[in-house]
Amino acid sequence: MNSRPNPHLETRIARVCEYIEQNLDAKLSLDTLSAVAALSKCHFQRVFSAWTGVSATRFAQLARLRRASFRVAFEDGLRMIDIALEAGFDSPEAFSRAFRNAFGQSPSGFRAAPAWPQWHARFDFKRPSKRETTMNVKIVNFEDTPIALVEHRGDPKRVLETAAKFIAWRKATGRSPVKTSMTFGIPHSDPKTTEPDDFRFDIAGSIEGDVPANDYGVKSGLIPGGRCAVVRHTGSHDRIDESIYPLYRDWLPQSGETLRDFPCFFHYLNLIHEVDECELLTDIYLPVE
Predict the structure, then answer these.
(1) pTM of this prediction?
(2) 139, 89, 188, 129: which is closest to 6 by C-alpha?
């Protein structure tokens, strides 16, 4: 018996997942999703659940709740009723029940103190791999860029807690304003190969001048200028390794380039609370000689 997974089915289910994430405000009927998968309705439901571990209906609800959770955590000016309606719920009460069932916290409790490790655990179900894409790598000259940064040390599932500190510092001080400054992430280690306690990741924004003493743990830093290979990643930050690994594995050996002694870094062209995850754009910079 051949027990190898069927790559054609994986591609079809990945296509459905992508379709759901790109159409969160649409009515995602079984007829529509089975058509996207090019499978009959009776087979589609079983195949989707077999690949992901959840039904397509549940996947769509969790995708909407995931988007809502970013709105709750990072958009404190938004009313819960507006977030609930955007997520497809008729009332704040129904939204609150679904949110608590998914994340173990009420929306208001999550806004006050998000439990990000539990949040991550909710999305531990299997996700089919995206279809292979062609890399478009460019070589650019990156200028010295002074930054304000906050260092994250520890469990990568808590990076968003550190991001919240940086956001709070930006709002409180008016320095490195998000609308007119660049936002960066600088990973000093790979979360897939590093013990959680040893994981390091800097969250940063471009700034003019030094960072005054503050209670947020934000300090001055610099992204050094020089030649960089750049590739654009589209979609969730959780899947950015789908663009990083091919850059190192496939492009770098064929390019003849030599790496500089500075980690790759991310330039976030938009932010998770501003757009849906499928619309996120991130430029990945790989410093080379």
Answers:
(1) 0.88
(2) 129
Which domain CATH number covers 50? 1.10.10.60
Measure the CA–CA gap between 85 and 91, rounded to whole angstroms.
7
The helix/strand count (H/E) of the chain reads as: 11, 8
Query: Based on the domain organization, do 12 and 111 belong to the same domain?
Result: yes
Distance CA 196, CA 85 (A): 37
Lay out the sheet containing 226-234: strands in order across.
138-142, 226-234, 281-287, 265-268, 183-187, 200-206, 145-153, 218-223
Strands (E) in the chain, as ranges, are: 138-142, 145-153, 183-187, 200-206, 218-223, 226-234, 265-268, 281-287
* CB 18 within 8 Å of CB 234: no
How many angstroms from the chain centroid is the CA of residue 231? 16
Using one digit for the tens of pLDDT, what is the confidence trace for 109-145? Answer: 999 999 999 999 888 777 776 655 578 999 999 999 9
- Enumerate residues 6+ apart whose C-beta is below 8 A from 213: none
Query: How many Cα atoms sit within 13 Å of 162 on the Cβ side?
Result: 21
Same domain (yes/no): 224, 199: yes
Residues of the domain holding 178: 138-287
Distance CA 140, CA 257 (A): 13
Residue 259 and residue 225 share a domain: yes
247-287: per-residue pLDDT in tens?
A: 999 999 999 999 999 999 999 999 998 899 999 999 999 99
